[in-house]
Amino acid sequence: MSDTKATISFTDGTPSVDFPIYKGSIGPDVIDIRKLYGQTGKFTFDPGFMSTAACESKITYIDGDRGELLYRGYPIEQIAVQCDYLETCYLLLNGELPTRSKRDQFVGTVTKHTMVHEQMQRFFQGFRRDAHPMAVLVGVVGALAAFYHDSLDINNAAHREISAIRLIAKMPTLVAMAYKYSIGQPFIYPKNSLSYSANFMRMMFGNPCEDYEINDVLVRALDRILILHADHEQNASTSTVRLAGSSGANPFACIAAGIATLWGPAHGGANEACLVMLNDIQKMGGVEKIGEFIKQVKDKQSTAKLMGFGHRVYKNYDPRAKLMRETCHEVLGELGLGDDPLFKLSMKLEQIALEDDYFIQRKLYPNVDFYSGIVQKAMGIPTDMFTCIFALARTVGWISQWTEMIADPDYKIGRPRQLFNGATRRDVLPLDQRS
Ligand code: CMC
User: Fold this and answer.
1) Which sequence positions are flagged as catalytic?
2) What is the residue with the minimal CA distance to atom 14 of ligand 1?
3) CA separation (Å) from 300 to 78, 156, 349?
4) What's the N-to-C CA distance of the chain in angstroms?
5) Whose CA is nearest to atom 15 of ligand 1?
6) Angstrom distances, CA of residue 121 to CA of 79, 124, 132, 290, 424
7) For atom 28 of ligand 1, which residue has the closest CA?
8) Which residues does ligand 1 sit against, CB inside 6 Å?
9) Alpha carbon of 319 to ligand 1 centroid (Å)
10) Tell me, what DSSP letter sits at residue 42?
11) How far is the centre of ligand 1, averaged over its atoms, from the C-alpha of 138 (Å)?
């Protein structure tokens, strides 16, 4: 908080008004305009929330100009190399990194909740095998509310905590089930002696006929994907979770709403869209055709975009992209895929775009999804599962943000205003008099 004020004056005779300005611990100051309508009869207009902070938060901070991402104050570069995903979850949920004993306790609790109700299998069987796994995930995560009635009281802190644990623990099981169902293989039960990421890979790629061999490089790569996608402050899906939650909806319903929002290609669907784009360029003729494709992307008449490039907030390099790029090279090396034509194509595309004036002037750099799609493809994860893995990773961010909001005694139901441009009041004409 500060004593600084913003004075807004008007040219239409409305008296000028003062608004308090608040300072966060870092980041831009905010002007508190909550009383604007009451004092002036006017709303603000900010589609896309370009200048609007919709909540207070202590969880994640992004400085888009400096390319900085902090989880509870810790730089992503340190978290990604010094912590694993479940420690990151603990941090996001609780505000501090766990001690060894708290870590062991948390891991133990999450691990005990990895199984889903056996009847969940019937939900999967109701879907077509060729359904997009994100469609399935929206359905089955929403359906969790029908199974866990004992933790739906959002005003009870213990219920909120157990719902958070259940979501974090069961998401890998549900995502792997969605995959197994799509390829007609039996579901693989979780194995609690494995780490979170190793267990997920076994549920994805194991089968009852032979033991699944854990590859530490790939498990570490997956864990890094999960860490880098764990939270990203008030993005579209997180804001959706908060908005849904502001009505008092249960956490499973709110996370299902977040998953639906994440699915869009401008958000979490970008890694899938990026791979589709790479395949399309490959079909057009590969590296030789990059120039033609870039020309199309720059053409104002075309809707084509270079997927995996650009970000609403990062107008410098996406710090997650640097870490993911490192993992990308590690995984391609481990799997001997350095010469794969698609991977060569992606590296060439990255190089050309980074040198092109159009992208430099608009500060369009590769984002995390450019590399995470390539890594996942190398690991054998099918393209249409990429966004599900993003959803699995982001669940902790969503539930941490939801918990923060519900625990705030001042939270209100979200209700944006509008600039109405439609017809003014008019009367209904009888059917034969209408033109
Ligand atoms: N390819 C070509 N041109 C682009 C791209 C792109 N990927 N992104 C932005 N531009 C151009 C855009 O056409 C505009 O040009 P002009 O000023 O001439 O009209 C300028 O750059 C500014 O773009 P914008 O649309 O105002 O930027 P935005 O902040 O509204 O959009 C974005 C951000 C992420 C939606 C957009 O960059 C995009 O669609 N990128 C591709 C999809 C993608 O990779 N999304 C993943 C984001 S990271 C994962 C996550 O956090 O969800």
Assistant:
1) 311, 369
2) 362
3) 40, 52, 20
4) 58
5) 362
6) 36, 5, 17, 44, 52
7) 312
8) 232, 235, 266-268, 270, 297, 305-312, 362, 364, 367, 369
9) 17
10) -
11) 26
How far is 364 from 359, CA to CA, in rounded Å? 5
CA distance 416 to 47: 10
Q: What is the pLDDT along the chain (435 residues), one digit of tens a residue?
A: 567 999 999 999 999 999 999 999 999 999 999 999 999 999 999 999 999 999 999 999 999 999 999 999 999 999 999 999 999 999 999 999 999 999 999 999 999 999 999 999 999 999 999 999 999 999 999 999 999 988 899 999 999 999 999 999 999 999 999 999 999 999 999 999 999 999 999 999 999 998 899 999 999 999 999 999 999 999 999 999 999 999 999 999 999 999 999 999 888 888 888 888 999 999 989 889 999 999 999 999 998 899 989 988 888 889 999 999 999 999 999 999 888 888 888 888 889 888 999 999 998 988 888 888 889 999 999 999 999 999 999 999 999 999 999 999 889 999 999 999 999 999 999 999 999
Q: Measured in angstroms, how far is the CA atom of residue 109 from the centroid of ligand 1?
A: 40
As a whole number of angstroms, the distance between CA 263 and CA 139 comes to 13
Is the C-alpha dihedral spanning 305, 373, 237, 21 positive or negative? negative
* Residues in the chain, total: 435
Give the distance (Å) from ligand 1 centre to CA of residue 368.
Answer: 14
Task: Output the residue whose Cα is nearest ligand 1's atom 50.
Answer: 267
